[in-house]
User: Fold these one by one.
Assistant:
Number 1:
Amino acid sequence: SPDCSFTCHYRCRALVRLDCSGPLGAGDEDDGTEQELEKDTNVDEPSEWEKAELDQAQVEQRIKEYNSQINSNLFMSLNKDGSYTGFIKVQLKLVRPVSVPATKRAGRPGPRAQGVKRRTSFYLPKGTVKHLHILSHTRASEVIDALLRKFTVVDNPRKFALFERSEKDEQVYLRKLADDEQPLRLRLLAGPSEKVLSFVLKENETGEVNWDAFTLPELHNFLRILQREEEEHVRQLRHRYACCRQKMQEAL
C-alpha cells in the first residue's frame, strides 16, 4: 500500500505476517475509545481512601469481604505475622517494543559472538494480562521486576511504570504509582471491582528521557526512526502544498 510506512529487517521478512486488508484503524476500536476516555490526572498523591490505615481487625474484615465478592479462586489470605497474600491482575499496554535474549542457535559461536549479549525485540500482543501472586508489602517496583522476569524482558526496569486505572463519570483516570506503594494493599482497599481500580504497566513517560538507560544499538535505531519520520513528515507537507498550489492554479 502506498500509505504504508512499515519497515522490516530483511532477515525478519519471512517471520512477519501483515494483514492490511482492513481499513485504516480496523481492529483498534477499543484503543480509540480508550484513548478518548483516558486521562492522566498527573497527580502524585493517592486519593483519600487509598491513604486509609487499617488495623489488624479491619484488615481481616476487609479480606473476608473481598473473598466473598470475587467469582474466582484468586482469594486473599491472612498470614500469622499480620501480612496477607493475594493476586493482582496487570494489563500490559506497551507502545514500544521490548528486548529479550536472542534465541540460541545450534552450532559453535564465532569469535565475534563471544562475550556479546545478543538481543531481539518484539511488540507484546495488545491486551496482554498477567496475574501475580504477591505479598501485602510487595512494592510497585518489585511488581515491575516480576513482570519483566515473567516475559524475560531485559530492558531497564526504569523504562516502565505501574499505573492505577479507575473509571468515574465515564472518564478513565490514570495515576502512576510510586516505587514504594503496595499494589495488593490498594487492591484490598478498592475491592475486586476492576472499574474502581485496575493496574496497567506502561512506558515510564516522564518529562525528561533517561537516555542512559538505552543501549547503543537502541539509540542508533531511534536516530534512524527519527530520520525516517522527519523525511515522511516533509514528504507529506510537500504533497499538501503541491495540492494547494494545483487547486489555486486550476482556479486561476
Number 2:
Amino acid sequence: QGKFTLLRDTRTDGSFLVHHFLSFYLRAGCKVCFVALLQSFSHYSIVAQKLGISLTAAKERGQLVFLEGLKSCLDLLFGEEEQQPGQPSPLQFISERNSDLKALFDFVRMSLTPADSDSWNGPVLLVDDLSVLLSLGAAPVAGLDFVPFCREAV
C-alpha cells in the first residue's frame, strides 16, 4: 500500500516483470488499471492464461481496466474511435497540437477511483512502456509530469 515501483531495463528485456506484477496483483484482489502501450490485449491475455489468470474475467468483474494503446492509437488516427460524450480519448494528444497527457491521467484517475460497490484490496497502475508515449508525440516534460501525478492518484 502506498508504494511506487519504476522498472527500467537496459541491455535486457524486463517485460516478464510486467506479466508477473499483473498476475500478482490480480490474484491479490487489487483493482488494476493497465495502460498497455507496447503489446495488445490478446498478447497479455495469452501470457496471463499460462500463469493461471483470465484477463477477460477480470475485466468483466471490473477488477481490470485495460487501455489497449495500439488499438486506441489506430482508431484515433483513422477516426474510427467511438467517442463518449464529454469523455476525450485517453490518447488524444496524438491528434492534437497539445502534447500534454491530461486526458490519459484523467482516464487513470477515473479508472482507479473506487465505486461504492468496490471491494478491491487497493488500486494498482501498470504501464508497460512509458517511452512509447514519447514516440507517439508526448512532450518529455509531460511524460515526467505524468509519473508523479499517477503516483499521487494511486
Number 3:
Amino acid sequence: MGAKESLPGDGPAEMHHYYSKFMRECPSGQLSLHEFKKLLGLQELDPQGDLYIKRVFDVFDLNQDGFIDFLEFIAAINLVIRGKIDQKLKWYFKLYDADGNGCIDKKELLSIFAAIQAINGQTNMSAEEFTNMIFQKIDVNNDGELTLEEFITGVERDEDLMELITKSFDLSNVLKVIQNGRRHSI
C-alpha cells in the first residue's frame, strides 16, 4: 500500500473535520446528484459516464431518498477506504446489478464497465473483452448471470481478477476529491 494516507478516523476531531467539509460543500446537509457531480468536477460527462456516476450516487444513497446525507457520506468513505474486501465486493456487486434483481448479467456488466472507462479513460481491454473474461472465469454454471455468491467466490479466488476489479472500480480518487474539495473557488 505504500505510505499511509490519512484515513477517516472515528475520533470526534476527525468527524468534525468531515462534517464541516461536508457542510461547506453542501450547506443543506443533503447532497443531490447534481451537487455530487459538481463536487467531483464531473458535470460534462458523456451519457455512459453519467450513468455510472448516477449508479454510484444511488448506491451511496442508502435510504434511496435522492440525496446523500452526512451519515451516508461517512459510510461510503469508510467502506471505500477501510472496508474489508468482501464488503467492497458486495458493494461492487450492488453497483453492477443495475436492475436490482440479485444477479449481474452481461449487459449490466458491459454498460457499467463502459461507463467507468468513459470516466477513467485508461484501460488495456475493451468493455466486451472485460465482460467476457469475467463471465468466463466466474460464471460457474454458465447461465449467463452472476449471483452475489458466484461473484464474491470467483473474484476472491482469482488474484488477477481481484486486482483488475479493484483497480477498475477504485473510487478512492473520487473520495480524495471529496476529502480535499477540488471545487473550483468561485
Number 4:
Amino acid sequence: MLSSLCLNGVLLVLFTGPTVSEFVVIGEVGQDVTVPCHYSVRDRNGITSMCWGRDRCPNSKCSRPIIWTDGWRVTERHSSRYQLKGDLHSGDVSLTIVDAREADSGIYCCRVEVPGWFNDQLINHEVVITKARISTASPHTYTSEQTSAPGSTSEPSFTVTRTWPSVSASEAPQTASAPCSGTSDCLDVTANLQNTSVSLPSQQHPERGLYIGIGSCAALLLILILALFLT
C-alpha cells in the first residue's frame, strides 16, 4: 500500500513537472528590449547557474540556448546582441536584446537551475517586436495677414461730392467724385473747394428780353416807313 502511494507521488511529479510562469513583453524595432527574470539570493551559496533559450522551457536545460551564466559571469553567448546587464550576484538575470528586430519575436525561456529534483524556476516570455510608430504630422495652414507698419495708422478713404448751381457748360467748373488716396489729399480738396469762389453771371429774365426785341423791331419798322414817305 505504501509503495503504491509513493509510486503515484513520483508519477504525479514526473508528469506535472515544475510550475511555469508566462509573461508578454512588447518592444519596438531598433530599441533595446529587456525581458525580466529574477530569483532570490539569500547568500553566496544561493547564486546559481541559469540559461535563456528561444523556445518554451523543456524538462531540463534550455531549447535553442542563446546565453548561459554560472551565476557569476556569462559563460556562453549566442550573439553579442544578447546581454545580461543586471546584477547577477543579486539574482537579476534579465535578458536585454540590443537593437531589437522583428525576427526577435517569439517565446523565450528563462531557466534558473535550483539544486534538487524539479526545483528549477521556469519562466516563459512571449516577446513581440513591432515596427516603430511613424508620427505623421497633419499639414498646417498658415494665413499671413498684412498689417500696418509699427507706428503707422490706417488712412480711411473719403468721397467728397460738391453740388453746383445750374450754369452754362462753359462756365461750370469740372468736378469729379472719386475716392481720396489719403487723408491729406481729402483735406486739400476740401480746403480748395471752400476757398474757391465761383462768379456766376446774373440771370436774365426771358420775358424782359422778349419785350426789348419787339420794341427794337417796331422802331426799325417805323424808321423805314418815315424814310419811304420822305423819299
